[in-house]
Design goal:
Elements lengths: L1 H23 L11 E2 L2 E2 H29 L6 H36 L16 H19 L1 H5 L1 H23 L1 H4 L15 H24 L6 H4 L3
Antiparallel strand pairs: 1-2
Length: 234
Amino acid sequence: MIVFAATGTFLSFFHQGSLGGMFGVLYARPFAYRAGIVIWPWTFFLFILSAIASGPSFTTLMVMLTEKASGRKLTTHKVKMLMGKISAYLLSFYLVLKIADTLYWANVSLPKMGVTFADLYAGGPYGTYLVWLELGLFGVVPALLLLQRRVRESYGFLALAMVLNCCGAVMNRFVFTIQPLAIPVLPFEKFVGYLPSWQEWGISAGVIGYGLLVFSLAYRYLPVFPQEVELNKS
């Protein structure tokens, strides 16, 4: 178990970091470029932090969905509340650094490269509403909700806050990796939007299906939830 946990953590750590780091050093794409430490842009660390902040929420949501699908209690609500509390503190810490990075990028980094924050939203379907969605609805709102004990005590509100938290991580990846590639940076370039093809949707569905299969087999044959037997004795 220790070997698998360490391997998963190592691979996830560098997967998230490399995604943020790659786009963060693209000089030709000023809307994604960031300053940083030596060769690592701030986004290398921010991507890792956002994944860590949404990880407990995603894990808890998977447990909740498994409970609904199996009709069995897998863990106590007290454990779910603890995971929500951990996610709240991690998300709050990430948001402080993320907002600071966004302000510095918009007011210092972009002007140095001859562009403005408004240029990022000059064409196409991408508007400033994406910023409010990422940092507001999917950032500050779930952080404030999860920080409140009475919200964590409610099964429904806890799940809602965790869903918003996970949506924030997804929105961050979209805004940072898809949107900057669509904005033209040369006079002869045109705006190029992106919509996944059915083949890409199929591949994504296959990956998700494979993950669900592995998770279901682990639930069936491995003692993943030690509290399950005790909670379902009656």
